[in-house]
Amino acid sequence: MMFAPDSALAADSTPNQTNLSVAQLIDDLVNIDAQAPGLHSTASFRTFIADNSPAEFADGVIGSVAPTNFPQMTELVRRGASSLPLLIEHLDDKRPTRLTVGGDFFMFAFFSDEYDPRTPAPRERRAGLEKKLDGKYTVRVGDVCYALIGQIVNRNLLPIRYQPTAGLVVNSPIEAPVLIQEVKRDWGDIDAKKHLASLLADARAGKDLWEYGPALRRLRFYYPDDYRHQAVGALQKKIRKFESSEKEQK
Fold first, then answer.
1. Which residue from 33, 54, 61, 187 could staple onto 2, CB 3.0 to 4.6 Å apart?
2. Is 207 found in the same domain as 84?
3. Of the candidates 155, 187, 219, which is a domain's last residue?
4. What is the Cα 145 distance to its own chain's centre?
5. What is the three-class DSSP state of 187?
6. DSSP annotation string for 124-159
7. Greatest CA span in the chain, whole angstroms?
8. Three-state secondary structure string covering 15-68
9. pLDDT at 150 over 50
């Protein structure tokens, strides 16, 4: 099921976003006032907000409102690796946004520290967080930065997510500082070269389209020359399948 974001054209309608610095764009995250990719309490959506492609419903409550692509979020993701240092620096930013989640709909809600690592290599085991959340939760700027980092590096970093049945999970770096440590360990030294290498590794490792497709989408957006090179190289078959799938969806 495909959803066009409520503000799918928002980024195009505010060209001044491209003139703002990364710091200014992050400051503007306080104005987020609706559910967005990675910040959705009743459904999960597969999407890459930089290219304004439709969001694909993955799971959750049927009939959930589509996520909104806010222009400041979109612009930060579009800038790719150059956004990452400040996004990481603001993971502990406690400034509230205008988005509040939770409430009477949910039968249970809790804070957790779920993290999608850069590599699947085993790490030192740590006790997972599961702390009850009473009432509603106001999303913080640091939470939004966590979601945006995931968008850029092709990882499911979800500060807000739905848990069947009628549950809410909040993975906030404010409430779980260990998430900041994990992000810094994986992505603290990232630059364009390492970002490219990571996306290529993701594309090569994935066996099915749903695994390697998101990496190819980001590779094409951020590094189009390298994408074209791979289209006649080692990833040729995967790119053909990826592009064929896109045509079928259209």
1. 54
2. no
3. 187
4. 9
5. helix
6. ---PPPEEE--SEEEEEHHHHHHHHHHHHHT----S
7. 54
8. HHHHHCCHHHHHHHHHHCCCCECCECCCEEEECCHHHCCCEEEEEECCCCCCCC
9. yes
Q: Cβ distance 54 to 6 under 8 Å?
A: no
Would you place residue 10 in the very low, low, confident or very high pLDDT band (cuts 50, 70, 90)?
Answer: very low
How many residues are given for the chain?
250
Mean pLDDT of 55-65: 90
What's the whole-number average pLDDT of the chain? 91
164 with 51, same domain: the answer is yes
Domain count, the chain: 2
Burial class (CB within 10 angstroms; exposed 0-12, middle 13-18, buried 19+) of 157: buried
CB atoms under 10 Å from CB of 225, counted, come to 7
Give pLDDT, residue 225. 97
- Contact criterion met (CB below 8 Å) for 245 and 77: no
Nearest to 145 by CA among 9, 20, 32, 21: 32
Among left, alpha and beta (phi > 0; psi -120 to 50; other), residue 166 is left
Q: What is the DSSP string of 81-132?
A: GGTHHHHHHTTT---EEEEEEESTT-SEEEEE-----SS-------PPPEEE
Query: Domain range spanning residue 201?
Result: 192-249
The answer to whether 18 and 30 have CB atoms below 8 angstroms apart is: no
CB 236 within 8 A of CB 227: no
Question: Among 86, 83, 90, 120, which residue's Cα sits nearest to residue 195?
Answer: 83
- Taking only the tens place, the pLDDT of each residue in 167-185 is 999 999 999 999 999 999 9
